[in-house]
């Protein structure tokens, strides 16, 4: 798996869930399909009068989620910004060409109510529940720093093996200090809760 394959899978899914936060701090989610994919960015269309547009203009932070028929979850976390005025028509026309239904929603000149946003800096997480053990990996779009998640076993480990016994994915290996295979970890915290000496830390 890699970033480009993740973006292609998102494109094939088509309709994605976009999450933002409104002015009162409440989460808001919309399904969006008016999206164009480039190798290093994605562009999407919405109307200027929508609350979605206001939230993007006010803050810009957005999470995008898709789920495939193969039990794969792809989550993109980034910041959206409106493209420059001289780029608006170019990307809008590309999106309308790729998504013909939009001409029915915004016929003729009414498409000018739309605004194109771009995301070119993001963290992209891939999580496959359809394999055993599960598989997860994180990629970057642009130049962003990824956030470490999950759990790690510290040098306080006494090698009792309790964490290994309770791991639902059997992704903890023996050693001088036991080690979690991060790409196969659910981040469920079962090892953390059962360690008798609290040698496991949340990242």
UniProtKB/TrEMBL annotation:
Q: Where are the transmembrane segments?
A: none
Pfam families, per the entry: Fer4_7, PNPOx_N
Under the heading SUPFAM superfamilies, the entry gives:
4Fe-4S ferredoxins (SSF54862), FMN-binding split barrel (SSF50475)
Check the record and name the PROSITE patterns matching this protein. Answer: 4FE4S_FER_1, 4FE4S_FER_2
Q: Which domain of life is it from?
A: Bacteria
Which ranges carry the 4Fe-4S ferredoxin-type domain? Answer: 148-177, 178-203
Q: What function is annotated for this protein?
A: Ferredoxins are iron-sulfur proteins that transfer electrons in a wide variety of metabolic reactions.
Descriptive protein name = Ferredoxin
Provenance organism: Roseburia porci
């Amino acid at each position: 798996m890699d970033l480009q394959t993740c973006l292609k899978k998102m494109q094939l899914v088509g309709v994605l869930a976009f999450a933002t936060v409104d002015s009162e701090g409440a989460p808001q989610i919309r399904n969006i399909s008016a999206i164009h994919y480039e190798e290093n960015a994605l562009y999407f269309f919405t109307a200027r009068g929508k609350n979605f547009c206001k939230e993007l203009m006010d803050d810009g932070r957005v999470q995008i989620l898709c789920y495939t028929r193969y039990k794969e979850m792809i989550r993109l976390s980034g910041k959206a910004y409106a493209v420059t005025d001289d780029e608006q028509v170019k990307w809008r026309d590309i999106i309308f060409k790729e998504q013909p239904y939009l001409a029915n929603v915004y016929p003729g000149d009414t498409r000018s109510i739309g605004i194109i946003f771009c995301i070119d800096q993001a963290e992209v997480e891939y999580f496959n529940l359809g394999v055993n053990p599960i598989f997860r990996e994180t990629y970057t779009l642009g130049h962003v720093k990824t956030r470490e998640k999950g759990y790690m076993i510290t040098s306080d480990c006494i090698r009792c093996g309790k964490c290994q016994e309770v791991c639902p994915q059997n992704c903890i290996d023996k050693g001088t200090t036991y080690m979690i295979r991060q790409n196969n970890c659910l981040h469920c915290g079962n090892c953390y809760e059962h360690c008798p000496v609290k040698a496991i830390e949340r990242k």
